[in-house]
Amino acid sequence: MNSRINLITKTTEFAMNVTLNYIDEGDLVIDATAGNGYDTLVLAKAVGEKGKVFAFDIQNEALKNTEKLLQEHHLQDRAAFINDSHENIQQYVGGRCKPSAVIFNLGYLPMGDKTITTKCHSSVLAVKAAIETIKIGGIVTLVLYSGHTEGRAEKRTLLKMLKELPGKEFHVAYVSMTNQVNNPPEIVWVTRKK
């Protein structure tokens, strides 16, 4: 009997599994939407003691949740918790070594106030900044949620923007779970060519 894991059963895990292939110990990485901290935790484990995760969120509650989760795993020293919009990534990371990975889970804070969502305008600026910031061979991962009005606008605008990236400089892959119901999350990966 085959004991392989079905990698595509949960979209967020699938997105992260691909992203982890671009991260080495000691790397700088960015969680552009910290949420409840699950991606930040995985990234903190991946970068090791000498690496660093910059975890962004506009909601103080999200950063508190993220920091608490990392404290429970004794990994809080591997992260910087930044209460600011992800569109300002370059203000915090500019001048440092380039990140190997930037991950976005767009939408709203799970179990939080659903009226507070990522916004199309700031998400576009953030993704542009991430693409400009990642190192050669690095990856930007987007998990898109189009089950709400702002999410549909984000998805439409981001896909249009990413489709226009020069093919000589970037690879862009888009994954949609086409047989799932109720607007399932979708993934976009952008890698900077070597």
Shape descriptor reads globular
Total strand segments: 7
Number of helices: 6
What is the level-2 CATH architecture name? Answer: 3-Layer(aba) Sandwich
CATH class: Alpha Beta
Low-confidence stretches: none
Whole-number total of structural domains: 1
How large is the radius of gyration?
16 Å
CATH homologous superfamily title: Vaccinia Virus protein VP39
Q: Structural class, from secondary structure content?
A: alpha/beta
CATH topology: Rossmann fold
For the biggest sheet, the summary is: 7 strands, mixed
Approximate helicity band: 25-40%
Give me the strand/helix succession.
Answer: HEHEHEHEHEHEE
List the helices and strands and how they pair.
Elements: H1 11-20, E1 28-31, H2 38-47, E2 52-57, H3 60-72, E3 79-83, H4 89-93, E4 101-105, H5 120-133, E5 139-144, H6 149-163, E6 170-175, E7 186-192
Parallel strand pairs: 1-2, 1-4, 2-3, 4-5
Antiparallel strand pairs: 5-7, 6-7
Helix pairs in contact: 5-6
Which key terms come to mind for this protein?
194 residues, globular, seven-stranded mixed β-sheet, 6 helices, single chain, 35% helix, Rossmann fold, alpha/beta
Overview of the structural elements:
Helix 5 packs parallel to helix 6. This protein has 194 residues and is an alpha/beta fold. The longest helix is centred in the C-terminal third of the chain and has 15 residues. Helix 5 links the parallel strand 4 and strand 5. The radius of gyration is 16 Å and the shape is globular. It has a single domain, classed as Rossmann fold (3-Layer(aba) Sandwich), CATH 3.40.50. The protein has six helices and seven strands.
